[in-house]
Amino acid sequence: MNKTELIQYIQKLREKIWYHSQLYYIEARPEISDFEYDRLFDELVKLEQEHPDLITADSPTQRVEPKPISHFEKFKHQVPMLSMDKAYSSQEIREYGQRLQRFLKTKVITAYVVEPKIDGLAIALWYENGVLTKAVTRGDGEVGEIVTTNARTIRNIPLRLLTQTPPKVVEIRGEVYLPRAAFNKINQELAKAKVEPFANPRNAAAGTLKLLDPKIVSQRRLAFFAYSLGYHETLLQTQWQTLSQFKEWGLPVNPLAQLVNDFEKVIELCESWQHTQHSLPYDIDGLVIKVNDFALQQELGMTSRTPRWLLAYKFAPDQAITRLEKVVVQVGKRGTLTPVAILQPVELSGSIVSRATLHNYDDIQRKDIRIGDMVTIVKAGEIIPKVLGVIVERRTGQEVVISMPQRCPVCNSEVTKDAEGVYLRCQNLNCQGGLKSKLLFFASREAMDIRGLGDKLVEQLVDRGKVQNPADIYRLTKQDLLELERMGEVSAQKVLAAIEASKHRGWARVLCGLGIHHVGERVAQILAEHFHNAQALLQAKVEDIVAIHEIGPILAQTVYDFFHSTYGQNLIANLQEVGVDMISVSKTQPSAMLDQKTTQVSFWHGKTVVITGSFQQWTRPQLKEWIEVAQGKVSDGVSKKTNIVLVGDDPGSKFQKAQELGIVCMHETELQELWQKEHSNPNANTQERNGNPTQTNFF
Ligand code: IVH
Predict the structure, then answer these.
(1) Range of 670's domain?
(2) What sign for the dihedral angle of Cα 356, 357, 361, 366?
(3) Residue whose CA is closest, atom 9 of ligand 1?
(4) Which ligand 1 atom is at minimum distance from the Cα of 228?
(5) Helical axes 263-273 vs 90-104, angle rounded to 10°
(6) 86, 296, 375, 417: most buried by Cβ count inside 10 Å?
(7) How much of the chain, in percent, has pLDDT values that exceed 70?
(8) Ligand 1 contacts CB of residue 118 (under 6 A)
(9) Which tens digit of pLDDT belongs to each residue from 234-247?
(10) Are 658 and 643 in contact (CB under 8 A)?
(11) Which of 95, 17, 27, 29 is nearest to 56 (CA)?
(12) C-alpha pair distances (Å), 499 with each of 475, 510, 528
């Protein structure tokens, strides 16, 4: 073969491979065996090795870059990647349809495309002359990160569009996701390696796409669905046409997308999907309704933030009904006694659930939940399952009223209701019940940041009686650690070094780690700025503490009580004794985490908020705590000074007054979104580790 013939031969071989990989990965109807496919592939690899000058960027052998990259470059999207308006019920979808029609006046919308809303992350793929040249994450919608080397490893993303006449440039947008089977496999492997598993496939996909080593990305089996055009110069006129064009180009399009002519049918379709979502091999969190015609899309334009021509319909959180068999009491890090329902195991959102939180005894009483009751449980996203309420009609008369514990189940000390009168707390600050979570919190990133001191280690240390309070951590010897399971010389050394390093995190971090109720990272910092060392707080009166603008009377009393308790004073003395620095935070180097949180002002900062009605996810004191810790104010009555009214179920007259005064009202769904935004792990997208530590500890 001369060079020209060789080039032609290699090109033919590549085309064969593209053709068969398209059949295999996109259409799922292979024509040749895996063995034959591998043979073609190996031949190409061999020829390219012999003639490296003939390797092209779009060659199927070039999916995996051999070396990790150092970082991701930023890229400004030519067309911003926007977000969508959301609806949560048929009624809201119907209202959206009416809004569309009102907006368009006499013009009638004759077609909509309804597509599954894939729960992954958006990506923009740039094809130049048909060749994949760039893949960019959504980022903040304006600027994303270039992740081309990683995207190339995704087997159903074509490296070249299957056409002889590709557009000069086209940007194709879609969702990168992780099929559930691949997710389970990754988590099994992480568990084996003793690394914290991912909370859900979406986090795993996000974490994976941001790994610097394309080889690992390639093993993780991400997948892709294309759903829209970004920058383009095509003559396509409708969404439906676009999806067909994508298919012709060899891009994977979700096969469940449907063209619907009538808005009532759109609603019916959305309703029918609620129950089928779990039968798919990947997660979807709703449906997307799109006006089919691009000219109409153009005419509809945008509201201030989102396009008018599409709507996300988000599925209501899944519910299940099961029997409450008994109630156990869990003692948390601040001595809080949480009643936990032990349930007859039941499937919920694709997993088997046998425990759910009952929040507190007030909640149990209010909902009149009894042992033996058939209860409705709910799980929304990653939130732990909770008992919503009782199906009273299914009572047999055998149900038993749940009694409130008078004594702590762990140390038998007296329990009392906290200042807000909702939570039961064990009064023994030394109680071993919450010790494990207390220690984990002390070692967590927001507090002393002792890397390596995780769940497993703390569990063993407490069970063997090696650690009875946070100060004992600093008394651990290498020998103590070597006696633990799976602890070698090197790991022990590392843990000891991390413990030693943590002595110098500064007073604010120590204060945060003490586990005083309501004192998290932010409050600890405020306190440390006013009381520069432990001595100052030990001498402070309640009035001195409450004099700080951001600190309310309940919080001030709690802090005062802690510093006047034997437990608190002993702990401070012990920490001093073992050499933990307790100097003012302003003189210490804040950790990256602290930096991030303090520069990110909470939504509640400086706002006056009124709460009305009840919420599924929070009790009122919980909401109050969230707002106050973030330097917002919660007041009782609605007035012109009120900035926001939080409206739960069965709201009272405050809601009406808010509407009369034109005050912004927030409902639970918006609160949930805000909660997720303000509490999501800032490293969630970049690291292997993920999840909310308090949730992981709880169950
Ligand atoms: S169209 C204006 N179609 O949902 C945004 N998005 O919650 C147009 N998503 O960022 C996007 N499936 O990542 C569209 N079939 C689909 C989708 C979809 C999932 C994602 C997308 C977007 C997010 C918004």
Answers:
(1) 590-688
(2) negative
(3) 117
(4) 1
(5) 160
(6) 375
(7) 93
(8) yes
(9) 899 999 999 999 99
(10) no
(11) 17
(12) 10, 13, 22
Average of per-residue pLDDT across 577-586: 76
* Å from CA of 140 to ligand 1 middle: 14
**Confidence category of residue 615, pLDDT binned at 50, 70, 90:** confident
Which residues are catalytically annotated?
117
Residues 154 and 183: their CA atoms lie apart, in Å, by 15
Q: Measured between alpha carbons, how far apart are the two ends of the chain, in Å?
A: 67
CA separation for the pair 342, 216 (Å, rounded)? 39
d(Cα 353, Cα 325) in Å, to the nearest integer?
13
Distance of CA 450 to the CA centre of its chain: 23
* Residue pair 121/202 in contact by the 8 Å Cβ criterion: yes
pTM value?
Answer: 0.54
Q: How far apart, in Å, are the Cα atoms of 627 and each of 16, 170, 550, 599, 611?
A: 61, 46, 11, 17, 11
User: Which tokens belong to 530?
Assistant: 């006013």
The values of phi and psi at residue 550, to 5°, are -80, -5
Same domain, 391 and 518: no
Residues in the chain: 699
**Domain of residue 594, CATH code:** 3.40.50.10190
Tell me if 266 is assigned to some domain: yes
Cα–ligand 1 centroid distance for 239 (angstroms): 13
Closest CA to 499 of 479, 477, 526: 477
407 in any annotated domain? no
Q: How far is CA 220 from the centre of its chain?
A: 20
> What pLDDT score was predicted for residue 685?
30
Q: How many domains does the chain have?
A: 6
Does 284 contact ligand 1 (Cβ within 6 A)?
Answer: no
Pairing of strands 318-331, 370-371: unpaired
- The answer, yes or no, to whether residue 365 has pLDDT greater than 70, is yes
Q: Is 83 in the pocket of ligand 1 (CB under 6 A)?
A: yes
The CA distance from 635 to 610, in Å, is 5
Q: Which of 83, 113, 273, 685 to mutate to test the pocket of ligand 1 (most atoms within 8 A of CB)?
A: 83
Residue 157, in any domain of the structure: yes
